[in-house]
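so im writing up the methods section and need the Leucine-rich repeat and WD repeat-containing protein 1 record in one place, dumping it here so i stop losing it
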Amino acid sequence: MGPLSARLLMERGRPKTDRLGKIRSLDLSGLKLLTEHLDPKLLSRLTKLQELDLSNNQLETLPANLGLSHLRILRCANNQLGDVTALCQFPQLEELSLEGNPFLTVNDNLKVSFLLPKLRKVNGKDASSTSSQVENLNRELTSRVTAHWEKFMASLSPEEGTEKAQEDFVRSAIRDVHYGPESLSEFTQWRVRMISEELLASSGTQMHEADIPEKSLKATAAQEPRARPVASKRLDDIPLSLSPSKRVCASPPAQAEGRLVGSGGSQPAPKLEPLHFLQCHSKNNSPQDLETQLWACAFEPAWNESTPLAGKHTRATSQTVATCGGEAVCVIDCQTGIVLHKYKVPGEEFFSVAWTALTVVTQAGHKRRWSILAAAGLRGQVRLLHVRAGFCCGVIRAHKKAIATLCFSPTHETHLFTASYDKKIILWDIGVPDQDYNFQASQLLTLDTTSTPLRLCPVASCPDAYLLAGCEGGCCCWDVRLDQPQKRRVCEVEFVFSEGSEASGQRVDGLAFVNEDVVASKGSALGTICLWSWSQTWLGRGSRSAVPVVVLARLQWSPTELAYFSLSTCPDEGIVLCGDEEGSVWIYDVRHMLTQQPPLPAVPQAPTQILKWPQPRALNQTVTKTMVNTVVANPTFTYLTALTDSNIVAIWKRH
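--- predicted struct ---
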């Protein structure tokens, strides 16, 4: 398609007319248009145009001077747009479609909301939720930039020139003023620059005057948005009267109990502050829903752009967590409590989520890093979600029965293990999306189990060679090397917990590596978590198919007879975590244990801390009993997220 012509505009415009100035609706979809084909001089003659369809083209941006000041509806779906700031030229815009532009992120959604004050719908959905989020961010950023201005002015020497001082202020504000999740940093830095420049403009040459003319904002939405934080950051600040939304309040937390004592002395308990209690998985967004079961959560890895492998360990801190339960998957920023994305599939019940990062080459040859979230559950399907762009870009029909759990390989970013109630574990290569952003997954291996697999765990020291699984019938190991000819394999070794509380053939519902060698596992027997050595156990295997584990230590845990409380670890911090039936989180710092010399202590080691869950109360309804079935922390143990059987997501922060 070449440049547009007046004849083409009149052919595709409505109403039919021989004058461009009378066209009110124009369909330019599916013409393979490039940005340079949009001639501002020609399009500016459409003085009455109110509706424009540019979908299904190849636009990378919009020209900044199209002159369509009366435009109310704009469709730009399925293009290659990478920037939205040119939309500010359409101040009357009420409806906007940007679906299928894979390089737009949540930052661009927020920019759109800020730039278009009359916007009512985005991608067919109500825009009030995003508008309210932008108002909150804008209010906080304005406050922080103002405080930074006052601090900057106080440190300014009389000798410094006004112009240089102004430039220094803007640079320092962009560098030092932060708020919200890292995933929103593009938007927040963009707004910080704007607020700083507005502040300077309002002060003129008298730099001591710091009055900020607030930008006119849209009125707050009349109702709570679908994905709002549902509790204040500090329990002490919770109001006595709550609006009828998904808010949850909590009583002050009890003092932490227990200390872990081993050779070398005791470990101090970490100080954890409760930040948010969210009810974001409710059916029909109802605050009365205390029954939706939450199953799993996982922190988004803080991908190192210089690291080619998705699973490479870094010390970067992630504060974005994905949670699943009921028919929804939520992506939450732990710092602010904002639900960044919510993905729903009516009739589905999601049981597991896992993250990876893919390097995607665009049509223009540029490399982009995509965070992909895999989610699976009752239907036996894996949905691959492009989180930043906010859409599902692939579905794998993996199993005929429900998928219990899944995990990505730590060394191959496209390799995904799925474990199902059909007693099979399948290794998939999800590939990378094509130019239409579709995945073509291929099956690499099928691993047969004798009981339902509950937890998957690639062996930390050799993840390409062996996979551990905690199953209803015990802990099993498979050879997953792809250079072997068999594509369908049976369990190679069963690990036996014959000493202590666990025994051969019993359920293992908790499994995770504490470091390159030490495994933490939990079974249905009462009261203990076992720490055992992979290398020492494997060394003593010989030709046996059932091998006793080499136990390094045992940890005291709840004496409950209930099962399926998942444990997790923070390998960099030497932390083991597990919830219980009383709503508590058991925290173990095991670093000193791993250096202990035999013999083992006669009794299981006490936890470093038992974090008591504050009893949440929903409006006009009391949660009488809460079980913490899943708890995870980010790699640096800065944020901790716990899920309950009463539809509550709790977030703590370590100080």
